[in-house]
Amino acid sequence: MQKFKKLIFWLLSAVITGAICGLCGVLFSKAIAFGTNLRAEHSWLLYLLPIGGLLSVAIYKLCHVKNIGTTNVFDCVRTEQSLPLLLAPAIFCGTFISHLFGASAGREGAALQIGGGVANVLSRVLKLDEDSRHITVMCGMAALFSAVFGTPLAACVFVLEVILTRLCLSAILPVFISSVTAFIISTLLEVHPERFYIGDLPQFSFSLVWKVTVITAAGIVVAFIFCKGLNFGKAFAKKAFKNEFLRIAIGGVIIVLLTLLVGNYEYNGGGIDIIERVFAGSVMYEAFALKILFTVICISAGYKGGEIIPTLFIGATLGGSMALILGLPVGTGAAVGMAVLFCAATKCPFATILLCCEMFGFACAPLIIPAVITSFIAARYQGLYSNSKDIIKCIMHHQ
Prior knowledge:
Layout: H1 2-41, H2 49-62, H3 70-78, H4 87-101, H5 108-125, H6 130-149, H7 152-163, H8 168-188, H9 206-240, H10 244-262, H11 272-279, H12 287-301, H13 308-326, H14 330-346, H15 349-360, H16 365-378, H17 391-398
Helix pairs in contact: 1-4, 1-5, 1-6, 1-8, 2-4, 2-10, 3-6, 4-5, 5-6, 6-7, 6-8, 7-8, 7-15, 9-12, 9-13, 9-14, 9-16, 10-12, 11-13, 12-13, 13-14, 14-15, 14-16, 15-16
């Protein structure tokens, strides 16, 4: 009876967490869209990127959340470590600044932090025990991811898969309910889910197999370069510029100069619009390499937002350009590229499959699953999240 009461309590708290985080996700999504559109209308805002970076660092210092990031949210679920009360507003403001002034950063990493931060505060208000607090934080992370990206199944599985603690089995239903609740709220409030039209899928053939294999292999190599670039860039920037204000200002200046050198603004911001253009057939062969460069500089300098959308950008442009070379439909190549990059970078194969099915339609599964499995097995290097757990190692450990 006691366990049943606890389950009911978890489910009710999941609905409440999903509703609150769903509303936060709507506000966050609309704020990011507003900032992105404003920058598109007033391109001169890019020149204020270094000043925006200084403001972002100042906000983090005022909120006392220096050096707090996504890995700390993961630790909050695995340990008794709590999260600062002001983490959610700090990362909200920092990510808005990044998109307003043109830093190459995403928003899903920020969503995980906002969701975890809001849920952590909620768990304090409700005076939850440690296990319930952990599950509530997981619910918050999934809910914000679901509300912002519009992929409730992938959001649920991603959080469970990247955390992998003893509570994951108990958390499946609450996290799922929270994710779906947030998705419903965000949809009702007109936050449009990310969907891409992959086009007609090619029929199975040995030619298709080897072409997809080539794209998969290239994606694994590029994901390695991207992840290692981020790790090296962060370490180098902290060593070379110990002062955070100086570090982010110099990074902003470099991005402004690179943008002027490239001659367009396509590598500023997250780049969802560029991904949409790839699926419409517009591909630039150098785009994936330039996005890696822009993102590594911005994240290493300290701009907030996350790496997931840039990862999908890199995968779409790489896969789309290789599809043109290999004679595949661009949409097919872009979808495979996105799946491979996301899986290789996050080490979350099940979430990757569901993410692709929700974004492209479940008909893509036979094409995506072999590429994802290959990517997961072959990409044995450290991914985006330094403390994310490898599912194979966890299974072997518990046997």
